[in-house]
Amino acid sequence: MLYSELADTFDRLESTGGRLEMTSIMADFFRRVDPKELRNIVYLMQGKLHPDFYPQELGMADKLVLKAIAFTAGMPESKVEELWVKTGDPGEVAESLIGKKKQMTLFSEDLTFDRVVKGLTAIEGAEGKDSQDKKIKQLSNLMHDAGPVEARYLCRIVTGRMRVGAGAMTILDALAEAFAAKEDRPAIERAFNVTCDIGLVAETIAEGGMDAIRAIGVKVGSPVKVMLAERLPSIAEVVAKMGGRCAMEYKYDGIRVQAHIGKDGVKLFSRRLEDLTSNFPDIAQSLRTRCGCGEAIIEGECVAIHPETGFMLPFQTVTHRRRKDMKDVVRDVPVRIFMFDMLFADGKDLTGLPYPERRKALEDGFSIGGMVQMTTMKVVESPEEGERFFSSAIAARCEGIMAKSLAPESVYRAGSRGFLWIKYKKDYQQALTDSFDLAVVGAFYGMGKRAGRYGALLMAAFDPETGMFETVCKLGTGFDDAFLAGMPDLLDDGLSESKPASVEAEMVPDVWFEPTVVLEVVAAEITLSPIHTAARDVIKEGAGLGIRFPRFTGRVRDDKSPEQATSVDEIVRMYGMQSHDSDGISDGDDP
Ligand code: AMP
């Protein structure tokens, strides 16, 4: 296949607004291409060469791309830079300069898709002291034979600026439309959720159809999207929703880890699919020695422990384990893992079993002790029993409880948030609502003491349906001096010249950011807002939902990707859980 066919499809997708139309453009294309090439095609649609959990990134520094464009176009770098500053988009620059050049070139070779994948792979893998030159050479080599549109997407891919709107959910829709029936869509999504590999799902369905998709199960070494909990505002409601009887576990305040214990060693993944093995080598080792069931996948919460008293320490302590430089940290920050689920054991996928059977398999599969513990659990049959268990969780320095359904249908639902698990935290007793994990999409310069630096942030929730980040508040409270001083370091990598395509906002900050950083925020109330865009028109025509008196808790949720921020749907449900004395519209912001 010629790469131009893919670039033309990107171009059509980009100029299309509606998701249905995008899906059918993609589906047509998927049907036409060789199934062998489909895997790489869907990775590239997302600007990648590998599944999400693959550690290497294709990022090429802007400076190098600029040089490659200048070299290919035979123009001074300063001219290219001028145009880049004007448009803010390397893709547009390449399109206007490289395309023209190509028309004048006599000797050019076909730019096949295969050649592009090989070139990008070489860019990704370039190492050593001349790695920058190698990258520039590879990119100009590809651009030399590229037409205008092809060059546009090459530059966007290598600089991580692919935004044709090809979110995973749209790709899954298109795969269903191309190779299966509408009712097969949930099974296709399940295959994605248990493998986290959209390329694998695409190749499997194109080659083997739905039978092959249904045969996909969890696999040691390939992370599974985590199951998530709903929330309710009181223990009584939790117990009632569970039908009067459920398991309750302590909700530990640490870092969630999915451990893959394989023949060749143990790998730990975060809920963002990052590899955490080097952060918790002691946990990996203990799990290996205490596991008595061959290969296994388990989940647990890693919590920091006071070295002398053995008490659990707050979340902030265990985050020291996330440092890049781990020298001395393993010794200085002792941890334990509290295991709460088992997804695979002894060659069997356990995700389809009900919770009590998975819990039993977990208890039987490990010799519990030392750093490897089970979460404290009790079967609860009344709200009073639930309240007592909750109090004991708080006394043990946990943040609340996780109620878990005992019903036959209480399977492990990879990647889904539902009422099979319900969380209840002590925060709920203090504020009207739970905490929110919100993505930073903009910043406002401060005044007075904060003059010259960022003083407040524009925060957004995520809508998985549309793939958009929608604003909910301007956050200016809860920042200490160290956080204020560190804000540029934390945020500036994501600086964007203009409002990012994935952000829906009416409020205009002084600077925009691509959503990458997630902060935990508590608030007093969710209100209708004329300015914020979350759930616009859902509760009331012309109004969105905003959160009032937001305050940063001090916790940067670097364990969550922006797409794992609190969803717009959750905010709508939390709004529904509040009592509404009036439906007046507030500005939704800290005054
Ligand atoms: P939240 O991050 O507030 O949505 O709460 C869900 C998180 O609680 C999970 O992702 C786990 O990291 C954590 N957690 C702590 N204890 C448990 C438990 N016993 N069962 C499940 N998740 C737990």
**Which class best fits the helix and strand makeup?**
alpha+beta
Q: What percentage of amino acids are in beta strands?
A: 15-25%
Number of strands: 21
Share of helix among residues? 25-40%
Estimate the global geometry from the Cα principal axes: globular
Kindly report the name of the CATH homologous superfamily of the largest domain.
DNA ligase/mRNA capping enzyme
**Uncertain segments of ≥5 residues (pLDDT<50)?**
580-591
Distance between the termini: 57 Å
Identify the CATH class of the largest domain: Alpha Beta
Enumerate the distinct ligands: adenosine monophosphate
User: Compute the gyration radius: what is it?
Assistant: 25 Å
Question: Helix tally?
Answer: 21
CATH architecture identity of the largest domain: 2-Layer Sandwich
Task: Using brief descriptors, characterize the structure shown.
21 strands, 38% helix, alpha+beta, six-stranded mixed sheet, OB fold (Dihydrolipoamide Acetyltransferase, E2P), single chain, D-amino Acid Aminotransferase, Chain A, domain 1, disordered C terminus, eight-stranded mixed sheet, globular, 3 domains, 591 residues, binds adenosine monophosphate, DNA ligase i, domain 1
Quick gist of this model?
This protein is of the alpha+beta class.
Question: In terms of topology, how is this protein built?
Answer:
Blueprint: H1 3-14, H2 19-32, H3 35-45, H4 62-73, H5 77-87, H6 90-104, H7 113-125, H8 131-144, H9 148-158, H10 168-179, H11 185-195, H12 198-214, E1 228-231, H13 235-241, E2 246-251, E3 255-262, E4 265-269, H14 281-290, E5 296-304, H15 315-318, H16 329-332, E6 335-345, E7 348-349, H17 355-365, E8 372-374, E9 377-380, H18 383-395, E10 400-404, E11 417-425, H19 427-430, E12 436-445, E13 454-463, E14 468-475, H20 481-491, E15 495-496, E16 503-504, E17 511-513, E18 518-522, E19 525-529, E20 544-548, E21 551-556, H21 568-577
Parallel strand pairs: 1-11, 6-8, 14-16
Antiparallel strand pairs: 2-9, 2-10, 3-4, 3-5, 5-6, 6-7, 10-11, 12-13, 12-17, 12-18, 13-14, 15-17, 18-21, 19-20
Helix pairs in contact: 1-2, 1-9, 2-10, 3-12, 4-5, 4-6, 4-8, 5-6, 6-9, 7-8, 10-11, 10-12, 11-12, 13-18
